[in-house]
Amino acid sequence: MTTRGVYIDLLPKIDTDSFLMALRRFTARRGTPHELYSDQGTNFKGGERELSEAFAAMQPNLQSQLAKQKIQFKFNPPGAPHFGGLWEREIRSLKSALNVTLGAQHVTEEVLSTVLTEIEGMLNSKPLGYVSSDVADVDPITPNSLLLGRPDPDLPQIVYPESELLSRKRWRHSQVLADHFWAHFIKRYLPELQTRAKWITETGKDLKTGTVVMIVDHQLPRALWPVGKVSATVPGADGKIRTAEVQVQGRKYIRPVSKLICLPPLPEDNKDS
């Protein structure tokens, strides 16, 4: 919840053993969390009980050594999913787009696992904001840059035709499904980031020269989030800003404000403290 990073794992069952093995995979990749928030699922409650019993059965000297690594479980009240609004929102976005992508078709576990991992990379590459500076190119902060400590890794993507959904080549099948998810995700997710409401608030009133924005472009390959600075604004006949010119890495794009999402500046560390 600090980095807004997403971790997706495929579990064969919803029981305590599957949850504990998934937790072990998570800690092996991301490290041991200090706190774990969840609902009142029996698999989560059973996992917490088993870990507590295993810790209580250890020798006192071993307990003192591992006390700092003990995970503190925090459960939502029963019947209160809104307590986990932060992660429930991400789950809903993923499920909605994945439901439209897969539909009623059956895929192998290997293909589904690959698609879910691709989705994890897409979600962790979305810009969270930017650090204020005077450099020409905007370098947005993403969950991947916080988790990995370097720019987002990305391999060259190959776009396969729709006919590959019926192909026996599982690799191509997984890539077509990942492309489908990206198309449905940005169609439903990005418009929700635009807080402007038609006929209620003024369109583009906060848009001005120097504003850092993300461009909504459905034609781009997946996991590409173009970010740039507004270099000029074009008002309409009524004086309202309807169009803007955006500078993205040496190139200029003219887009309507309905296709631009303002990114908030992230606070810099106080070096004097």
TrEMBL record:
InterPro entries: DUF5641, Integrase_cat-core, RNaseH-like_sf, RNaseH_sf
Top-rank lineage group of the source organism: Eukaryota
GO terms (BP aspect): DNA integration
GO MF annotations, alphabetized: nucleic acid binding
SUPFAM superfamilies named among the record's database cross-references: Ribonuclease H-like
Boundaries of every Integrase catalytic domain copy: 1-151
Classification via PANTHER family: GAG-LIKE PROTEIN (PTHR47331:SF1), PHD-TYPE DOMAIN-CONTAINING PROTEIN (PTHR47331)
Protein name: Uncharacterized protein LOC113079593
Gene: LOC113079593
